[in-house]
Amino acid sequence: MPPRSPARPQRPPHPSRRPPRPPARRRRPRWAVRAATTLSVVVLAAAGIGHSLVTSLDSDIDRVDPFKDMKNRPRAGHGMNVLLVGTDGREKISQAERRRYRLGGEPCHCTDTIMIVHISADRERASVVSLPRDSYVETPAHVDGTTGVRHAGHPLKINAAYAEGGPQLTVRTVEHMTRVKIDHYLEVDFTSFMKTVDVLGGVRICTAEPLKDTYTGLDLPAGRHTLSGGTALQYVRSRHVDATADLSRMKRQQRFLAALVDRASSSGVLLNPLRFRDVARAVLGSVRADRGFGTNELLDLGRAMRNFSPSSSEFTTVPIRDMGYAVKGIGSTLKWDPARSERLFKALRDDRPLSAGPRPRSPLPRVEVAPQRIRVQVENGTTTNGLGRRVDAALVAAGFRTTGRPVTADHTVRRTVVTHDPRWDRSARSLAAALPGSELRAVPGLGPTLKVIAGPDFRQVRKVRAQNPDRAESAVVRGDEVGCA
């Protein structure tokens, strides 16, 4: 077929005639290629720094091979599973910081935190399952990667798998116990954790009760705090603040992870190429990961977790049946509930939300702030006439206080956006929960009225309710700064 001649400039069409629409098949490949090559770096490219900045950061990651010679692995499911492991490595922490944050003694070279982070196939949803460090597990038969000695399977606490066989035995044991195939391995130690928090300028958390642990030195009064790297490490490590020990610690770790993601997404890091580079280097410069995990996977992780909140139903801990399961030579362990944990792991394998798995669903999703306390201005961010009025009416029907005067946005959007003053972040998360798939954007100085810019993806407003209506009413005194729902 001869090559086509260049297209001639088009004259404006006659008002009575509409130009023929080009065939859809000609457009899809172009958009597909564009999405595949620029989605993760579109903001950076707009600033003149493109994909090379992101991919160049891969060289900062220390590599490990946790899948070496692995056989008889679980069948691959849908989506992506990342095994996030926090170790007690502290070699790069100064002696002064060790004393200040109670990091004395020799590290056990074991895992302090183990989480399975599942990213849905469409990269729009993340689910996090914490595996308690004292969980009773049985290792599969394996060959020591260093000595070549073959070991039979045997029981131990899950955090000891790392000390015995490093990342390889940790991955093998998790896969053996869950039948969830791990696609990527990401290991974070104390040093990288502290650096990440500090380069973000600290992370805000809220505790309804005072937290005091003489072992780690944690001493936080009730209320809101911005934690630096060292204090944040105390917060996620403390196991002696109440009687539930490791289980309450995992809940704090989940809340902190949500707050960390929120801080990264609302502090302008993703909109500033240089800040993104600094944060990424702080994170990647002192972590270990498999060879297939790079900055693109890190961006997938962040994108899927962008709307996380501490109350998200996609945070959970593997169900426990026996809190004190005694094992000779090992001590007291946590024994998983076989039926409920299997339902949970099957949800990961099937790429289903956890809220539809082992836990009963509430009649209405619970949020931090009651809709009646949230004032909203609706803007139509599309060319569809009447969409603003439809969204406004749907929000009113769901209990939100709108201005009743939707307007046209000064620009169009591809997806529905909730913009908010950072001081009203809990209200914003509550509103976003009622708008599935919406994007949160922090705009300092916006004030108490939140803004919804309706996009072409809008389908419905989902009704929600406050976790505790009485506390939700009293918590909003200065923005969302006073009280914890």
Helical coverage, percent range: 25-40%
Structural class: alpha/beta
Strand order of the largest sheet: 1-14-9-2-3-4-15
Main beta-sheet strand count, sense and barrel state: 7 strands, mixed
**Overall geometric form:** globular
> How many strands in all?
25
Distance between the first and last residues' Cα:
67 Å
Our estimate of the beta-strand percent is 15-25%
Radius of gyration: 25 Å
The mean pLDDT is 77
Poorly predicted regions are 5-9, 22-50, 357-362, 469-483
**How many H/I helices?**
14
Molecular structure report:
This protein is α/β, with parallel strands linked by helices and 485 residues long. Helices cover 31% and strands 21% of the residues. It has 14 helices and 25 strands. The protein has helices at residues 24-38, 42-46, 51-56, 95-100, 160-178, 190-199, 229-237, 246-266, 273-284, 295-304, 338-349, 387-397, 425-433, 469-475, and strands spanning 62-63, 80-87, 111-119, 126-130, 136-138, 142-143, 150-151, 155-157, 184-188, 203-207, 211-213, 218-220, 223-227, 287-289, 315-317, 320-327, 331-336, 366-367, 375-380, 401-402, 407-408, 417-420, 439-442, 450-454, 465-466. A seven-stranded mixed beta sheet has the order 1-14-9-2-3-4-15, with helices on both faces. Strands 19, 20, 21, 22, 23 and 24 form a six-stranded mixed beta sheet that branches. A two-stranded antiparallel sheet has the order 5-8. Helix 12 links the parallel strand 19 and strand 20 (401-402). Helix 7 runs antiparallel to helix 8. The longest helix is centred in the middle third of the chain and has 21 residues, at 246-266. The chain is globular, with a radius of gyration of 25 Å. The N and C termini lie far apart (67 Å). The relative contact order is 0.11.
